[in-house]
């Protein structure tokens, strides 16, 4: 990679970076992190590249989901387990209906830094720096809490280590075995019509497994039935952190803070420090594609981030809102296809559909989310390209942050359990419902 090194981003404009008042403390923390083991391994990153290559060729589907912002306060085994359960349920639903393998990826074990619309927050006439994510400052509205503190990077790193330990155990230690499918049920979804539909599907899968077993097929010999890969990803926003997690393996650089990193809508401008950083790593990398993205933007990103046009290397995560997805996306898809660039196209139907409820809560409506997802599939039908995946802000718990869905959450219900640190997440029931609808779309698409 020409003229690149882990700190070459420093020659470019880096937006949305904290200003640390104590530079010595920052240097001390980054030196400690540089000595610390990586969170993931280069071999795993290469496996993900292969898996995403299959997705790019239309032989699989990506499911990427988790919190908008992970937090120190919400960290618990139960929360992590519930998130994994709902991801497994969603993935098996998509696999079953779409008859294709699903690559599972959490927005987890590193999703701690947030770009904000405004650098300051004002309450009752008092203005303080905005909350920028738990790896940077605290959410409490005090001057001390809102001051960027580099020690938080160490805590985020430690929490990520603990998280990935549990995720690996759940993915490969028996829990994710297909024969265990009923154990993935979540209490919070039991009371919805979805539970019946999920129950019927799990019965059919069990029958199929029993039948194969009776025929003498040694199910325990198939590792893909006994466990799964569960990859981790986050927005590569806090470049001080990402730089020290970049490691050289066999002559190539990897950002080993996660398997996959993406650059957000607010930091993908041409020549940005964030694009400079991720262009040099071997990981699969994503870029958010918002409503103002042009054909030239997309073509330039392909050239810069995937100059060798490798399969499974570059993800475009589209988050345009319903109307722009209908009006603009087909042209982007067609132009990238015509130029011959290999891209995994992913739909993030959350970020283009954020609105403020009359009560002041930031929310998203289930029907709008679904409409963007449908428009995404329609755009690919029109352009003759492949809808490769789904990117969701979601949790395994019953929260009331997005309106609509199976529980018909109304604006006046939002206050019951509104716990997000940043953007509104789908709760487990809403996430599963989206998976069912996406599975229907995927099946229709793949049966054409
Ligand atoms: O997650 C995405 C952004 O960080 C988030 O939507 C910004 O939220 P804000 O508009 O409240 O700053
Ligand atoms: C910051 C995010 O999104 P975007 O860059 O698309 O606004 C996010 O994924 O939380
Ligand atoms: Mn978000």
Tell me what you see in this structure.
Its EC number is 2.5.1.54. Belongs to the class-II DAHP synthase family. Mn(2+) binds at residues 68, 351, 393, 423. It catalyses: D-erythrose 4-phosphate + phosphoenolpyruvate + H2O = 7-phospho-2-dehydro-3-deoxy-D-arabino-heptonate + phosphate. This protein has 14 helices and 14 strands. The chain has 448 residues and is an alpha/beta fold. It has helices spanning 23-35, 42-56, 77-98, 143-146, 151-172, 193-214, 223-226, 239-245, 273-279, 295-305, 322-327, 329-338, 366-383, 428-447, and strands at 61-66, 102-107, 120-123, 126-129, 230-235, 246-249, 252-255, 260-263, 285-289, 314-318, 344-347, 354-356, 362-364, 387-393. It has one domain: TIM Barrel. The longest helix has 22 residues, at 77-98. Erythose-4-phosphate (E4P) is lined by residues 68, 114-117, 422-423. Residues 68, 351, 393, 422-423 line the site of manganese (II) ion (MN).
CATH class: Alpha Beta
- Count up the helices: 14
Characterize the main sheet. 8 strands, parallel, barrel
The structural class is: alpha/beta
Helical proportion? 40-55%
Question: CATH superfamily, called what?
Answer: Aldolase class I
Outline the low-pLDDT stretches.
Answer: none
Using DSSP, what is the number of strands?
14
Q: What structural keywords apply?
A:
448 residues, alpha/beta, TIM Barrel, eight-stranded parallel beta barrel, two-stranded antiparallel sheet, 40% helix, 15% strand, binds erythose-4-phosphate, binds phosphoenolpyruvate, binds manganese (II) ion, EC 2.5.1.54, cadmium, 3-deoxy-7-phosphoheptulonate synthase activity
